[in-house]
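User: what does the whole thing look like in 3D?
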Amino acid sequence: VSDATFHTKVVSGIAVVAAPEDIDITNAEALRATLLHSAGLGPRTLVVDMSRTEFCDTAGLHVLVLAHKRALTDGGEVRLVVPRTSVLRIFAITGIDRVIPMFTSLDKALAHEPGAGEHPAV
Amino acid sequence: MKDAAMADTGAFQHAAFLYRTRAEFTATVVDFVRAGIRAGEAALVASAAPAIQLLRANLGGEAEQVAWRDLSIMGMNPARITAAFRMFVDEHAGQAVRCVQELAWHAESPGVQRETLRHEALLNRALEHDRASLLCAYDTRLPSGVIAGATRTHPLVMRQGRWQASRGYASSPLIPAECGDPLPAPPATAARLSYRDDLTVVRRFAAAQAQRAGLGQERAADLVLAVSEVAANTLAHTTGPGTLSVWADEGEVVCQLRDSGRIGDPLAGTHPPGPEITGGGQGLWVVHQVCDLVEIRTGPDGTVIRLHVHLPG
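Assistant: Here's the predicted 3D structure for the full assembly of 435 residues, as structure tokens:
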């Protein structure tokens, strides 16, 4: 699985990347490559759909933060879809939940105005 | 003024305050904190809840200007206290900072004692370039070994109202030798797993063992996260396999990860990542945040990291 790239679709002009079940150091590079490719599709804002994701380590966070920073310099942002509370823990510990906008569903992430995340209730 | 020796000098000052009575503790700490607040310094007190209540009551209105860290809530892992000081100093960049701590020296676990001593010693390195004054309170009725440790890890000692340079400090190594005491071998009954490239297997194994030992779902997830971060370091920094051992001990689950790597920075894991998360080092920081105690032995023969998480009840 480690060299697989992840499914990307474009919804209402926004690229949506489906993140894998587990994100760790063995597939973080593949996620980075996918996000970089999706950013090149045109739209400046990128949604990372973590609906299936049950585990994410600091290597995964690192990739997400870099993608968010890159999007910010282009006038966009990364929005995370995180419905599972188990994944929220590492975002809270590292404070990344205050850095990248997070949403409880894909619809909310797509509908939202830039710059204002809807922090899911932990 | 009692705290003249700890006025803001623009440099880090680290003093052991050896007190005989609770009244002496309260009077001296209140004077120390108050003098800092009145000089425009940021103040933080880290202690167990009863001492915080006592100090709050005696500081009156000025208690609201103090950042309180309740160590009974933060838990026993001393590395988290190192990180809390680091964060507080960073949040007050450009401002002198004044801190007080009274650590859990009464803890019975030799591991907690060793890591608490390491925390005291590492503060001399962690804050060496900061405008911070740190007063560490020690009850003189503590075991003599604890008091001796205090004089070896603090450049300044305050006893019966008098400040003195600590003679034991200058001749001591950065980290006291006993902090590197060999860890007792894992029990023969420990569950073992060798890993080289698949972290999913490592996490599944740790989760199953944690559940078997009786950890609740949330703490089990924390332990799995910590194990996975340490195992990821094996993959990132070594070519050989690592070994994970898991066992239940008095009231806790212990996971040990051994590999051929070496950790060069004794402060690894005590620096918070913050929004500037840039890769490298955050893994160990997360590990410290979710474990009740972390013991690290590293050297030319490799690295052993032992993670402790308390069982419920």
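In plain terms: Chain B has a mean pLDDT of 92. Residues 217-237 of chain B form the longest helix (21 residues).
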